Amino acid sequence: MFLNSQIEEWRSLYLGELFAFSTVFAFSLRNQQRPQILLWIGANILSGVGVLMSPILLKTGLGSSPNKLGFVASYLSLLICYFATGTRTSLRPIHRKSMGLVLASTPIPVYFLIAPFGWQSVIIAYGAAILVCLACGIVTFKNRAWRGLWGQLLLGSGFFLSAALLVWRGWTIFQAKAGIGFNMDPEVTLRSVQMLTPNSFFSQLGFLGLVIERSFRAQRFGVRRAARAYEKNQMLLEEQKALSDLAEERLDTLQLLIHEVRQPINNAQAALQSLDYEVRQAQAASPATQDAIARAQAVLDAITLALSNAIFGVSIIGDSHSLVRQSVNVVDLAELAITDCPSETRHRIHLTTGQPHMSADVDPILLRLSLRNLLDNALKYSPVNSPISIDIDYDERRLGISFKVRNAVRGEKLLDGNIFERSRRGSGAKGDGSGLGLYLIRQVAQLHHGNISCHVGQDGIVVFDLFIAL
C-alpha cells in the first residue's frame, strides 16, 4: 500500500512537470520555432495521457484496453517528439537513417492493439518505443539547427536514457515471464517512475534551452545582419557620393571644353552666313562655291547639335540635370528648331499648328534640342527632297501638347529594334551617328512627364509623337 502511494506521488510529480513545462512552452509560441513548440506541447499531452491510462486497469477493472491505449498514446508522444527535434523551419525530417528506425517501428503499435495482451506483446511494444527513442536522440544531435546549443546535450542524452530505461523494463518483464501486460512488481514500477521523472525533467529543460538559445542566436544574427547592412549601405552612399562628385567634375570639364570649342564654331557659322549673304547679294559666286558654303554650314550645324547632345547626355547619365521651366510659346520654339537645321534642307520642313500661340511651362533649351533632334532624324533617314511636316496641337485626352513629325522612310529596317535606348540605332541605319538623339528626346519627354512614341502607317509614313504634359 505504501509503495502504491509512492508510485501515485511520483506520477503526480511527473504529470505536474509536464503541465508546468507545457505552460512555459505555450508562452514561447511567438518564437520562430512555433511548429516545433506546438509539437512538443502535443507530445507532453499524449505522454500524460499514456501515464494516466496505466492505473485505470487497477482501479476500474476494465480489462487490458486502457493499457493498450496508454502505450499507443506514449508511442505517439515519442513519434511527435521525433518531428519536433528532427526538423528545422519546415516539418520535414532531416536524417534518413533515423527515419528508417521510425518507419520500422510503426507496424508494432498496430500489432500490439490486435495481439493478445501478454508479456510477449509488451516486450515487442517496448522494442518499438526503444527504436523511436534512439531515432529522437540521433536527430537531436544531427540537427544543425541545434548545433552548439547547451540544450542539445541534455535533450539528446535524455532520449538515449529513455531508451535504456525501456530496455531495463523490458528485461524485467522478460525475466518474470508472467503476469498480464504491464503488471509487474510495484518496486520495479516505483523505480521506473523515479527514474522517468528526473530524466523527463532534464529532457524538458534541454528542449526549453534549445528554444530559448536559438531565439537568442537568431536575434544576435539579426543584429549582426542589420549592422552589416548598415555598413554596406554607408559604403554604397560613400561610393555613390564619390561617383557623383566624379561625374560633376567630368561634366564641368566637358562643358568647359565644349564652351571653348563652341565659341569658335559659332564665329565660323557667323562668318559663313555673312559670306553667303554677300555672295548672294553680289551674284558673283558659282554654283560650286555656293554648294561648298552650304556644306560647310551643314557640317558646323551637325557639330553644334552633337555638342549640345553631348552636354545634355552627360548631365542625364550623371543624374545631375534639373529642368528650368519657363512659360514660352512652343510654336516659336519649333520655328527656332527649324532654323537650327541646315539651310539647304529647311524648305522640306512644313510647320502646322492648331493655334498660332500655344503657351506651356517647359525647359525651352531642352525642348528646342529635342525638336531639333527629331527634325535631324527625319532629314537624315527620309528620301532626298521628300517633305517633312511637324504638327503642334493640344491633346485634350492626355492633357498636354503633342509634337508630331511625319516623314517617309528611306529604308524598311531603319526603325527595327529599340531605337529609343541609349547608343541604339535601327538595324538598317548607316553612316555617322551615335544613337543618342532619340534617347535624349525620350529623357526630355520623361522630365516633362510625357513620352515619345513611333508609328508607321500603311502608306509608309512614320510618325514620331513627342508628348509634353501641361
Quick summary:
Helices cover 66% and strands 10% of the residues. The chain is rod-shaped and about 140 Å long. Helix 1 (2-26) packs antiparallel against helix 2, helix 1 (2-26) packs parallel to helix 8 (186-282) and helix 11 runs antiparallel to helix 12 (437-447).
CATH fold-type name of the largest domain:
Rhopdopsin 7-helix transmembrane proteins
Helix vs. strand class: alpha+beta
Pattern of helices and strands: HHHHHHHHHEHEEHEEHEE
Query: Can you give the mean pLDDT?
Result: 77
Contiguous runs where pLDDT drops below 50 for at least 5 residues: 61-66
- Major beta sheet summary: 5 strands, mixed
Share of residues in helices: 55-70%
CATH architecture label name of the largest domain: Up-down Bundle
Q: Tell me the overall shape.
A: rod-shaped
User: Quick one: CATH class of the largest domain?
Assistant: Mainly Alpha
Please, could you describe this protein's structure?
- This protein is of the alpha+beta class.
- It has two domains: 2-230, Up-down Bundle (Rhopdopsin 7-helix transmembrane proteins); 322-469, Histidine kinase-like ATPase, C-terminal domain (Heat Shock Protein 90).
- Helix content is 66%, strand content 10%.
- It contains twelve helices and seven strands.
- The strands form two sheets. Strands 2-4-5-7-6 form a five-stranded mixed beta sheet, covered by helices on one side. Strands 1-3 form a two-stranded antiparallel sheet.
- Strand 6 (451-456) and strand 7 (461-469) form a beta hairpin.
- Helix 6 (119-142) runs antiparallel to helix 7.
- It is rod-shaped.
